Amino acid sequence: MKPNRYIKAMEIGLAHEKEGITYLELLSQIEYELGYKFSFGAESSFFEWFIDNFSIGIGKLNKNFYRRHFLRYLEDKQINDIDPEFGSYKELMRILNESFRLDGHAAKQYLDYQELVESRQTAQDARKASTKANEKASKSIRLAIWAIVVSAAVGISSIIIDWVALSNSPVQPYKVKVIENKELEEIKEWLDKAEMMLETYESDSISN
């Protein structure tokens, strides 16, 4: 929040709370720090605010006197027709060069303003930090989802590769087919007959 002339006046007044500051010095410093020139209307309303918020012990009737003559002073300043020896101007210029101090209620308003600015800044910082945290969390979630997708893709690829390899491998012979050899069977029968004949021959020899 950019300070306006009233906030700047309270800031300067609080910085000079011990020694005080004159109206003309205050006006000059505000114009320098804010970088603009007071117009007739701006200075008129500012002086109204100034004599209500800065004090050198002026009473109510005197304030009205200075309000009235200050407007005349501004009008004559516009046409460069100020007579510093003129009675009312002389008194007005004496007051404008007196050291004023910021009143307590105005100082409290400025401190409240500072707290408001700090609170807003803290809220903005917290909002920015929250936004960054949310962005990081969203990024982490996206990375986690991507990791799951990649893992699933790798797993599916492995299953497909294993299935293709199994499909291309030779099938084991679960059934054994016995092929008979007739020649071997005939030889076996001949040997059996020869054995029987030999046993008969031996039996006959023993009997004789």
Description:
Helices cover about 75% and strands about 0% of the residues. By secondary structure, the protein is mainly α. Strands 1-2 form a two-stranded antiparallel ribbon. About 10% of the residues are buried. Keywords: Membrane, Transmembrane, Transmembrane helix.
What's this entry about, in short?
The protein has helices spanning 5-15, 23-34, 40-53, 60-78, 87-96, 104-168, 182-207; strands at residues 54-55, 101-102. It has 208 residues and is mainly α. The longest helix is centred in the middle third of the chain and has 65 residues, at 104-168.
List keywords for this structure.
208 residues; mainly alpha; two-stranded antiparallel ribbon; 7 helices; 75% helix; 2% strand; rod-shaped; transmembrane helix; transmembrane; membrane
Question: Could you outline the blueprint of secondary structure elements for this entry?
Answer:
Layout: H1 5-15, H2 23-34, H3 40-53, E1 54-55, H4 60-78, H5 87-96, E2 101-102, H6 104-168, H7 182-207
Antiparallel strand pairs: 1-2
Helix pairs in contact: 1-2, 1-6, 3-4
Keywords: Membrane, Transmembrane, Transmembrane helix
Transmembrane segments: 143-166
**Overall residue-averaged pLDDT value:** 76
Low-pLDDT residue intervals, each spanning 5 or more residues:
none
- State the total count of DSSP E strands: 2
Q: Supply the number of helical segments.
A: 7
Globally, the shape reads rod-shaped
Main sheet: strands, sense, barrel: 2 strands, antiparallel
Instruction: State the helical fraction.
Output: over 70%
Order of helices and strands: HHHEHHEHH
Question: Which strands sit side by side, in order, in the main sheet?
Answer: 1-2
Radius of gyration: 56 Å
Residue fraction in strands: under 5%
By secondary-structure content and strand pairing, the structural class works out as mainly alpha
Distance between the termini: 145 Å
Looking at how many chains there are and whether they match, the oligomeric state comes to single chain
